[in-house]
Structure formats: C-alpha cells, structure tokens
C-alpha cells in the first residue's frame, strides 16, 4: 500500500507535473503553434472587448456611445455574461493545465478545463438559489423553456402494453436515442478500457432505472426494452465495439512524421486530420492478482461515481424541466464527456502508480462537479424526492456498493494477470520490483518518447514502460 501521508520529493513533483498535470508535447515540428502569445492574446481580448462593448452603442449619433436605450438591462447582462465566459476561456488557454493529453493541441484541453471550472462555479451559485429563481435564470438564457412542463419532456410512452412484443414495436424503439446509446457506450468503453467494468455499469444502470422509476417517469420501461434493446443491443454492442477499437488502437504503429516532411496536399491533409487521433495508446491494466486492497477499493469508487454522474443527467433534466434534445442538455453531456477523458486517465495513474500521491486537477474538478450536481438535485428537487420510496433508495445504495466491490474482486481473481484486452506482442515485460530513486530521476529528466510502448503498470514498484523509449532507455536499477 502506498504511503500518501509523507510529503512529495522534488523528483515526485516533477514526475506528477510532466505525466499528469502538464504533459508536454514531444517532437514539435511547427513551433509557431506552441509558442507563448500572452501579449498578443491580451491585445486581442482588449480590442475585441472594446469593439463589442462600444460598437453596439454607436447608432447614428454619438450621444449614446456609452449607453443606448435600444438595449434592455437583461440584454446588457446577457452580453456581459457572454463576454466574461469568452474571456475566461481565453485566460484558461494561458494559465490552466492541459492535463495528460496533448492531442490535438494542449489549448483544447485547457479550454475544456476552463469551461468545466466555469460550470462548477455556476453549480455552486445554483446551490444558493431556490428552484424558481434558478429556472428564471435558465428561462432568461433560453426563453423557449418558459412554458415547459414535465409532460412535455416525455418524448414517448413508457411501459405501456409490455405484453405485446412484436418486431414492428421493437423496431419502432430504434430511434436516434438508441443510436446515441450505442455511440455513448463505445465512448465509455474506450475511456474505461475494461470489459467487465463496462458491463457492470450497463447492468447497474438498468437496476438504477428500476429503483428510481417511481419518481422519474422516463425510467419506466418494458422488460424487453431494458433487457434486449438496452443491455444486449445498444449497450452490449457498444461495449464490444469499444473493446475492438481499443485492441486495434493498441496494435497500431504510432510513428508521426512532420507535416513539413510529407509531400503532396493529400498527405498533408491526412496528417492534419490524424492530429485529432491519439498520439499513442496505453494498455490499461486496472487489476491483477497482486493488487493491493487500496487499489481494489479505489476502483470500486470509480464505478459508484460514474453511476452518480449518469443519474445526475436525468435528475437535472427533470428538476429544471428541460427536454433531452434541448441544446442545454446536449452541452452538459458534451462537457461531462470531455471532462471525464483526462479525469479517468489521471485516476488510472493515481490508482496504479505508487509515485503519484495526489489527484490531478481535472480529476479533482470532475469529482467536485459530480458531487455538486448531486447536491443541486437534492436541494432544488426536494419536491421530487418527497414522493420517493425510501427503501428503494436504500436498496439501490446497498446494491451499488456491493456490486462495485464484487466486480472488482471478480476481476482481481478470475481475470488475472490482466483484465480487458490482453497485452500485445510489443508490450515489454518489466520486472515486478520497485525502482530506485536514480531510476525515477532518469525517467523524469530524460527526454522520453511515449509512443514506443503500449504497456503501463506501476503497482508494487513496476516501472511505467510507456515512459521509456526503445532507442533512449536509461539504465534502470531495481530494489527487490
């Protein structure tokens, strides 16, 4: 079990910074895209702010330069709110951490972090409001939601004539939301890279729908809808396709040529498009037989928090009366997905790497956001929970805890030494021993090439193979 009570050494701080908090781009070929432009950004922000704030107040005469009667207080506040958000994102590009990802560009993940932080602040503000006040703000942003009622957010009939099972009726449920279910589980599986955990989340979600169906009408489903369409077809196919994509990405050769060295417009365009794909791929090994109890506990918490984040999506729609197809719902879903990508990566390193003694910023913000969303749902949705059956919620909590621990222990003992996709032939074998301080020093100070390896496991002192290059591997010493 790792020791987290002791302070970090400078080497461990550098290791944390370079691998988790602020991963740097290796082999920069177009330096103009990675140079600091702080003064240029400052000038652009100020000129843009001055232009937008003043130009809209210049009609025919200049007497209304600083205040125009054509704009109401609500419009001025909306424009100011939008300007604050845009400037906050620009500032995020300069000062926020990009986390463990650098593709397609670190600025993208800094913007994601900035938008996530802004959303978290909005949730904190919402906690101190009443439901009517919070809805007034949403209606101010989206006036079409003013007359929205709970009956309007139900896009179809739920749990009606479940005994009538025909091919036409089953096929009629294969709508755009079924395709979204499939695509969503492909993405979830790619993020988790573990078949057993993904299947547990899929089955547990159907149990969650049963437990909360008495307060959320859209959770009422026929048995064939839950078992066949959701678990087996949409979720199941999504999980298996996601695992196939993981295997394909593991065996892929990651050798990136500079766009300047590629001849022809077609080749350059292809290289530019491939910039939006992973620069390397790490074989994920959450558990093995020698995993500590702490690792098993931390992995079970991932299942619980993931389930809570999924549940928040439906409660937020129900409490604030927003349709699933509304842009506000889609933006929140997109933001949570983008937040979870670096957060899961940081959590994986926190779980398996004994040299990582604290969580990354993206992971901290993701957990804080999920918990604050839950607080908003409970506080502002008190009328909804007044009709809840207490024992249903108690049984659901007990099942979530037991199933998460049971899944982890099954994976630990039945799917050892590795879970999910097996390692490829190119995955190096590193002795299961604890590296010395000089080894850590070499790994952190060396100019690494992470694309050469796909394996990664640091439990019980094993070294991170993805951090060492084939051609530039430092001398590694181990303490038995």
TrEMBL record:
<keyword id="KW-1208">Phospholipid metabolism</keyword>
<comment type="function">
    <text>Catalyzes a base-exchange reaction in which the polar head group of phosphatidylethanolamine (PE) is replaced by L-serine.</text>
</comment>
<feature type="region of interest" description="Disordered">
    <location>
        <begin position="456"/>
        <end position="480"/>
    </location>
</feature>
<dbReference type="GO" id="GO:0005789">
    <property type="term" value="C:endoplasmic reticulum membrane"/>
</dbReference>
<keyword id="KW-0443">Lipid metabolism</keyword>
<feature type="transmembrane region" description="Helical">
    <location>
        <begin position="39"/>
        <end position="58"/>
    </location>
</feature>
<feature type="compositionally biased region" description="Polar residues">
    <location>
        <begin position="461"/>
        <end position="480"/>
    </location>
</feature>
<protein>
    <recommendedName>
        <fullName>Phosphatidylserine synthase</fullName>
        <ecNumber>2.7.8.29</ecNumber>
    </recommendedName>
</protein>
<keyword id="KW-0812">Transmembrane</keyword>
<dbReference type="GO" id="GO:0006659">
    <property type="term" value="P:phosphatidylserine biosynthetic process"/>
</dbReference>
<keyword id="KW-0472">Membrane</keyword>
<comment type="pathway">
    <text>Lipid metabolism.</text>
</comment>
<dbReference type="GO" id="GO:0106245">
    <property type="term" value="F:L-serine-phosphatidylethanolamine phosphatidyltransferase activity"/>
</dbReference>
<dbReference type="InterPro" id="IPR004277">
    <property type="entry name" value="PSS"/>
</dbReference>
<keyword id="KW-0444">Lipid biosynthesis</keyword>
<comment type="similarity">
    <text>Belongs to the phosphatidyl serine synthase family.</text>
</comment>
<keyword id="KW-0808">Transferase</keyword>
<feature type="transmembrane region" description="Helical">
    <location>
        <begin position="108"/>
        <end position="131"/>
    </location>
</feature>
<keyword id="KW-1133">Transmembrane helix</keyword>
<keyword id="KW-0256">Endoplasmic reticulum</keyword>
<keyword id="KW-0594">Phospholipid biosynthesis</keyword>
<feature type="transmembrane region" description="Helical">
    <location>
        <begin position="78"/>
        <end position="96"/>
    </location>
</feature>
<feature type="transmembrane region" description="Helical">
    <location>
        <begin position="393"/>
        <end position="415"/>
    </location>
</feature>
<comment type="pathway">
    <text>Phospholipid metabolism; phosphatidylserine biosynthesis.</text>
</comment>
<dbReference type="Pfam" id="PF03034">
    <property type="entry name" value="PSS"/>
</dbReference>
């Amino acid at each position: 079990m790792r020791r987290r009570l002791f302070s970090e050494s400078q080497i461990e701080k550098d290791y944390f910074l370079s691998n988790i908090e602020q991963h740097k781009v290796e082999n920069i070929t177009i330096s103009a895209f990675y140079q600091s432009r702080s003064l240029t950004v400052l000038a652009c922000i100020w000129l843009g702010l001055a232009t937008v704030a003043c130009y809209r107040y210049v009609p025919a005469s200049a007497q209304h330069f600083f205040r125009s009667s054509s704009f109401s207080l609500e419009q001025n506040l909306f424009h100011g709110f939008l300007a604050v958000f845009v400037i906050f994102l620009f500032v995020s590009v300069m000062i926020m951490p990009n986390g463990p990802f650098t593709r397609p560009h670190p600025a993208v993940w800094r913007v994601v972090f900035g938008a996530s932080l802004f959303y978290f602040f909005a949730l904190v503000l919402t906690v101190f409001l009443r439901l009517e006040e919070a809805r007034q703000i949403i209606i101010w942003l989206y006036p079409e939601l003013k007359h929205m009622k709970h009956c309007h957010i139900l896009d179809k009939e739920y749990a009606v004539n479940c005994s009538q099972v025909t091919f036409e009726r089953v096929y009629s449920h294969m709508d755009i939301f079924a395709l979204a279910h499939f695509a969503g589980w492909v993405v979830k599986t790619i993020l988790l890279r573990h078949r057993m955990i993904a299947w547990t989340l899929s089955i547990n979600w159907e149990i969650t729908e049963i437990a909360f169906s008495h307060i959320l009408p859209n959770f009422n489903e026929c048995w064939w809808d839950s078992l066949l369409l959701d678990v087996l077809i949409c979720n199941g196919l999504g999980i298996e396709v996601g695992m196939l994509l993981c295997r394909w990405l593991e065996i892929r050769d990651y050798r990136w040529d500079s766009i300047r060295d590629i001849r022809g417009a077609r080749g350059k365009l292809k290289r530019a498009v491939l910039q939006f794909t992973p620069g390397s791929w790490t074989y994920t090994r959450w558990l093995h037989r020698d995993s500590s109890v702490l690792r098993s506990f931390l992995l079970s918490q991932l299942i619980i928090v993931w389930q809570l984040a999924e549940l928040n999506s439906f409660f937020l729609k129900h409490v604030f009366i927003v349709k699933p197809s509304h842009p506000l719902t889609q933006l929140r879903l997109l933001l949570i997905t983008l937040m979870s990508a670096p957060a899961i990566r940081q959590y994986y390193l926190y779980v398996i790497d004994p040299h990582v003694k604290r969580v990354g910023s993206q992971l901290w913000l993701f957990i804080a956001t999920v918990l604050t969303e839950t607080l908003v749902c409970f506080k502002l949705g008190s009328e909804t929970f007044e009709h809840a059956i207490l024992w249903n919620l108690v049984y659901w909590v007990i099942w979530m805890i037991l199933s998460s621990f049971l899944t982890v222990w099954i994976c630990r003992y039945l799917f050892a030494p590795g879970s999910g996709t097996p390692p490829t032939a190119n995955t190096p074998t590193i002795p299961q021993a604890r590296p010395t301080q000089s080894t850590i020093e070499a790994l952190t100070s060396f100019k690494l090439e992470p694309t050469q390896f796909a394996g990664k496991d640091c439990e019980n002192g094993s070294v991170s193979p993805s951090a060492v290059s084939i051609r530039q591997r430092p001398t590694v010493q181990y303490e038995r």
